[in-house]
């Protein structure tokens, strides 16, 4: 019978003994073990060794550098800096030295090799060329090179994983432009700028109303007035080409806005290629309301004051009449309730005496 026993030591210790006695067998084995926690190195003599660039001594195969020198082979002269500041230059925001993919040597990262045999790269060894987007289980669809996590496509291919043949047919518009100049064509589809809608970035549902934002330019271009009158050509001519008309020919929304003089301007805008590029048709006549009549305003004000005064007097008169009527009714009610009006005075004698003539026959 053979027994195979493994003993593991997790700390330094001097001689320790233990006994091995399998069940059913009378034989016992006492084992005494000890550990060697210090290397038995045959270090070369001398404070400056060629292995350490003559800047340090060798201790068990590792360079122990003289003052002002650091590094695996003491090849870094730190000068007035300290080792902590040099190591800090190898750390990005997360504080990990060389992203855990390299060694900090004299304030710069020396990157390790990847699992695939290539090297990490970048100032902090943050990049590798093995972890890019795949398409059909192929890195960069086999149509590009992986560079720092992003695919760099070969000529004739595009897309985040180089999965699409380069083509603009699906992005072509009716006027033979690509996405109306308001987006880019990727994988034969328009990637529109913010607010513009697919498929061709023609309309912008989230953009400000052009009738309102272009009013000042329309006023100065068409009628030489408004807040932009002095610098109209500089501000407006590059973004708007206009023509004065008597009747509209553009099939777009009609704008009707009030200008700085209180007149109504009618115009139409058509957005051309790009973001801020318009063609405008402006009616050559403005609709200005007639100024108010001063005499009518004064006369109306006087008449209104007179009418209001009369109405106030009538109201006061009505209130006084209602108050008097109420007091009179109250007096009548109190008069009816009084008891002395029906009482007889026992001392009262009527001054009138009625005498009957016995000889009067009535004829």
From TrEMBL:
<keyword id="KW-0245">EGF-like domain</keyword>
<keyword id="KW-0472">Membrane</keyword>
<feature type="compositionally biased region" description="Polar residues">
    <location>
        <begin position="347"/>
        <end position="356"/>
    </location>
</feature>
<comment type="similarity">
    <text>Belongs to the integrin beta chain family.</text>
</comment>
<keyword id="KW-0812">Transmembrane</keyword>
<dbReference type="InterPro" id="IPR014836">
    <property type="entry name" value="Integrin_bsu_cyt_dom"/>
</dbReference>
<feature type="transmembrane region" description="Helical">
    <location>
        <begin position="294"/>
        <end position="320"/>
    </location>
</feature>
<dbReference type="InterPro" id="IPR057073">
    <property type="entry name" value="EGF_integrin_2"/>
</dbReference>
<keyword id="KW-0677">Repeat</keyword>
<keyword id="KW-0732">Signal</keyword>
<keyword id="KW-0325">Glycoprotein</keyword>
<dbReference type="Pfam" id="PF23105">
    <property type="entry name" value="EGF_integrin"/>
</dbReference>
<dbReference type="InterPro" id="IPR012896">
    <property type="entry name" value="Integrin_bsu_tail"/>
</dbReference>
<dbReference type="InterPro" id="IPR015812">
    <property type="entry name" value="Integrin_bsu"/>
</dbReference>
<dbReference type="InterPro" id="IPR036349">
    <property type="entry name" value="Integrin_bsu_tail_dom_sf"/>
</dbReference>
<protein>
    <recommendedName>
        <fullName>Integrin beta</fullName>
    </recommendedName>
</protein>
<dbReference type="InterPro" id="IPR057243">
    <property type="entry name" value="Integrin_I-EGF_CS"/>
</dbReference>
<keyword id="KW-0401">Integrin</keyword>
<dbReference type="Pfam" id="PF07965">
    <property type="entry name" value="Integrin_B_tail"/>
</dbReference>
<dbReference type="Pfam" id="PF08725">
    <property type="entry name" value="Integrin_b_cyt"/>
</dbReference>
<dbReference type="InterPro" id="IPR032695">
    <property type="entry name" value="Integrin_dom_sf"/>
</dbReference>
<keyword id="KW-1015">Disulfide bond</keyword>
<feature type="domain" description="Integrin beta subunit tail">
    <location>
        <begin position="211"/>
        <end position="293"/>
    </location>
</feature>
<keyword id="KW-1133">Transmembrane helix</keyword>
<feature type="region of interest" description="Disordered">
    <location>
        <begin position="342"/>
        <end position="363"/>
    </location>
</feature>
<feature type="domain" description="Integrin beta subunit cytoplasmic">
    <location>
        <begin position="317"/>
        <end position="363"/>
    </location>
</feature>
């Amino acid at each position: 019978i053979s027994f195979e026993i493994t003993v593991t030591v997790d700390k330094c210790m001097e001689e320790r003994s233990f006994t091995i006695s399998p069940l059913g067998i009378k034989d016992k084995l006492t084992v005494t073990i000890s550990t060697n926690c210090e290397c038995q190195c045959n270090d070369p003599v001398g404070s400056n060794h060629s292995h350490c660039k003559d800047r340090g001594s060798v201790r068990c195969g590792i360079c122990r550098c003289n003052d002002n020198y650091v590094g695996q082979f003491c090849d870094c002269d730190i000068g007035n800096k300290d080792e902590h500041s040099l190591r800090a230059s190898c750390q990005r925001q997360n504080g990990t030295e060389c992203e855990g993919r390299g060694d900090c040597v004299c304030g710069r990262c020396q990157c390790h090799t990847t699992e695939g045999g290539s090297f990490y790269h970048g100032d902090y060894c943050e990049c590798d060329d093995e972890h890019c987007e795949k398409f059909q289980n192929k890195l960069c669809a086999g149509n590009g090179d992986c560079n720092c996590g992003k695919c760099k496509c070969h000529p004739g291919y595009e897309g985040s994983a180089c999965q699409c043949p380069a083509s603009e047919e699906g992005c072509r518009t009716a006027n033979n432009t690509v996405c109306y100049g308001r987006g880019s064509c990727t994988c034969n589809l328009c990637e529109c700028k913010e607010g513009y809608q697919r498929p061709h970035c023609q309309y912008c549902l989230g953009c400000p109303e052009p009738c309102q934002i272009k009013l000042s330019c329309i006023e100065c271009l068409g009628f030489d007035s408004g807040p932009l009158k002095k610098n109209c050509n500089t501000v407006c001519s590059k973004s708007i080409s206009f023509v004065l008309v008597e009747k509209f020919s553009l099939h777009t929304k009609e704008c009707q806005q009030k200008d700085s003089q209180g007149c109504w301007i009618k115009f139409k805008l058509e957005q051309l290629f790009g973001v801020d590029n318009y063609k405008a048709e402006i009616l050559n006549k403005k609709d200005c309301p007639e100024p108010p009549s001063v005499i009518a305003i004064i006369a109306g004000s006087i008449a209104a004051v007179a009418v209001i005064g009369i109405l106030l007097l009538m109201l006061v008169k009505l209130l006084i009449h209602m108050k008097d009527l109420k007091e009179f009714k109250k007096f009548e009610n109190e008069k009816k309730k009084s008891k002395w009006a029906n009482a007889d005075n026992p001392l009262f004698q009527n001054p009138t005496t009625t005498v009957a003539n016995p000889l009067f026959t009535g004829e």
